Amino acid sequence: MSWLLLRGMLAGLAVLAGTVLGGWIGAASGSRWAGALVGGALLAGLFAVADGWRGRRLLGWLRAPETGPLPRQGSGFWGEIGYRVERALRLRDRAIEAERIRLEQFFSAIEASPNGVLLLDANDQIEWCNGVAADHFGLDPQRDRRQRVTNLVRAPAFVAYLQGGQFDDPVSFASAAGRRQFSVLVRPYGEGMKLVLSQDVSEQERAEAMRRDFVANVSHEIRTPLTVLAGFVETMATLQLSEVERRRVLTLMAQQTDRMQALVGDLLTLSQLEGSPRPSADRWVAVASLMKRAEADAAALSAGRHSISVSGGEGVEVAGDESELLSAVGNLVNNAVRYTPEGGRIEVRWSPRADGGAELDVIDSGAGIAREHLPRLTERFYRVDGSRSRETGGTGLGLSIVKHVIQRHGGEIDIQSEIGKGSRFRLVFPGARLRQRAGVAAAG
Ligand code: ADP
Q: Is 383 in the pocket of ligand 1 (CB under 6 A)?
């Protein structure tokens, strides 16, 4: 109430001053009371006009506070009102700004989510979506705002799911090009609004398909020799065989068990490679001993049918696991012998590279491989000529083992081949995993 009292006193003082002044002037002209009345009324009017003018200024600013700062109101009643209004507005602006920053941080957090997030209103119109959802659904976050999502995303499975209203389980749908697979889950919130969460499950689907194929392939590979074996067992059990026939059947049975053993062996090697940590970088394997083993393996398999040459690697050591490296080189040499006709050439060569690394080449003059097969050769059970592979004891897993081994040693495999001209399988080792044994000069 203090301001009211103060203002009352001010107004009273003004009227009093006007009355006294008016009375004094009026006395000079013989009419003191009339003068006092006019003087009082005049100053009361002046006080009201000044008040109205300051109030109008404040109202004008309040109507458009964004146009500039509050005009100076001075002290007193209007000054205090101006100050209080301005402070209230400042506090409100600060609170709005803090909320805006919080909202921005919230959206940035959703934006950073690895999953797609799409907000739909009660009419399935897009309220907001993050970049991942825009990518999954093929949307433009700005342009498509307020558009009905089913007008833009036409995948029938998604449209039916959204319109069905049953959101207990997620739904899967393929991208327009069919190359990617998405899983989508809807969670209703607020008044008919929907939170749509999407996830790219292409990799999981691919891995799952590969696992299914793998199990089917293994079953098929094992079933074939098992069926043959079962047939022979039945033959031996039901027929009277001569000694010669019996020996022949036993030889064929041994071939089938060898085949199954080779397959199980390769499967175990693969699962070990996939399940164990990378070979340590401080166990050193002499390349010369790898080359010697390669030479011995090739000679034993070829049994003099090919000309074999092995060169390089003296004094060099490679960091890694000896049994894995022996298995990789063994597989390449084994293939070279098996896929090169009698009289052909097989060369195993170790050579340094300009970048400090080294390469191990297994080159043969065999039948060669058509270009279209090259990218798939290291896939499990991929064979160019299935019957030739099986006849020669192949499991279809050799190159897949080689690829795993070289990758675990930080290197890569490169295959070049031409029909009728032979093949070159190259293992490239990085310099970081190589060293020259002290006191031995580098050799090509
Ligand atoms: P496999 O046990 O069938 O030999 P791999 O994984 O070792 O399986 O090889 C995959 C396929 O690559 C083989 O089936 C064969 O068709 C082809 N291949 C591998 N090495 C050679 C080679 N040196 N010459 C020609 N073809 C080869």
A: yes
Q: How far is the CA of 413 from the centre of ligand 1 (A)?
A: 14
What CATH architecture does domain 114-200 belong to? 2-Layer Sandwich (3.30)
Q: Whose CA is nearest to atom 14 of ligand 1?
A: 383
**What homologous superfamily does CATH list for 284-442?**
Histidine kinase-like ATPase, C-terminal domain (3.30.565.10)
**The two three-digit tokens of residue 365, written as one number:** 């003059």
CATH fold of 209-275: Helix Hairpins (1.10.287)
Domain boundaries, the chain: 2-88, 114-200, 209-275, 284-442
What atom of ligand 1 comes closest to residue 390's alpha carbon? Answer: 3
Q: Confidence class of residue 333 from pLDDT cuts 50, 70 and 90?
A: very high
Instruction: Pick the atom of ligand 1 nearest to 380's CA.
Output: 6
CA distance 236 to 241: 7
For residue 392, give both structure tokens. Answer: 């020669």
Whole-prediction pTM value?
A: 0.70
Residue 384's identity, in one-letter code, is V
Residues sharing a CB contact under 8 Å with residue 241, sequence separation 6 or more, in sequence order? 235, 249
- Burial class of residue 436 (count of CB atoms within 10 Å of its CB; 0-12, 13-18, 19+): middle
